[in-house]
């Protein structure tokens, strides 16, 4: 697959740009300001940090620096905090879609069953 041409504008959804403009302070600074909240047990126990993003092909720009994004990998969301090394890459590179295959020997399988 050929990379996107340099003269084209990087792909970033308007939805994400609006969310960043509404919350200009990065996620790290907001966490320092507010106290930690306790999670309720049960159905709503899993809390997603950051802006939800389904577009794995969106390019990470300098506007996103320091923000947290919840990138969808096809099943659930994986939280990614943007650093300087990630600028210019795609969101999909940081949320793995496939589970690593681990082969166990027969003795380890027996221990796992018990």
Our estimate of the beta-strand percent is: 5-15%
Tell me the CATH topology.
Answer: 30s Ribosomal Protein S19, Chain A
Work out the radius of gyration.
18 Å
Strand order within the widest beta sheet? 1-2-3
What does it look like?
The protein is elongated. It has a single domain, classed as 2-Layer Sandwich (30s Ribosomal Protein S19, Chain A), CATH 3.30.860.10. The protein is an alpha+beta fold and 114 residues long. Helices cover 21% and strands 11% of the residues.
What's the short version?
With 114 residues, the protein is an alpha+beta fold. 21% of the residues lie in helices and 11% in strands. The chain has a 3-stranded mixed β-sheet with strand order 1-2-3, with helices on one face.
Task: Name a few traits of the molecule.
elongated, alpha+beta, 30s Ribosomal Protein S19, Chain A, 3 helices, about 110 residues, three-stranded mixed β-sheet
SSE blueprint:
Elements: H1 14-22, H2 27-33, E1 51-53, E2 68-72, E3 77-81, H3 106-113
Parallel strand pairs: 1-2
Antiparallel strand pairs: 2-3
């Amino acid at each position: 697959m050929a990379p996107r041409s340099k003269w084209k504008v990087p792909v970033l959804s308007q939805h994400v740009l609006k969310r960043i403009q509404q919350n200009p302070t990065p996620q790290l600074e907001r966490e320092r300001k507010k106290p930690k909240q306790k999670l309720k047990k049960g159905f709503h126990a899993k809390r997603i940090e950051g802006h939800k993003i389904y577009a794995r092909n969106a390019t990470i720009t300098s506007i996103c620096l320091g923000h947290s994004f919840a990138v969808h990998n096809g099943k659930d969301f994986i939280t990614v905090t943007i650093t300087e090394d990630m600028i210019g890459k795609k969101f999909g590179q940081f949320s793995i879609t496939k589970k690593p295959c681990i082969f166990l020997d027969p003795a380890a399988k027996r221990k796992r069953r018990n």
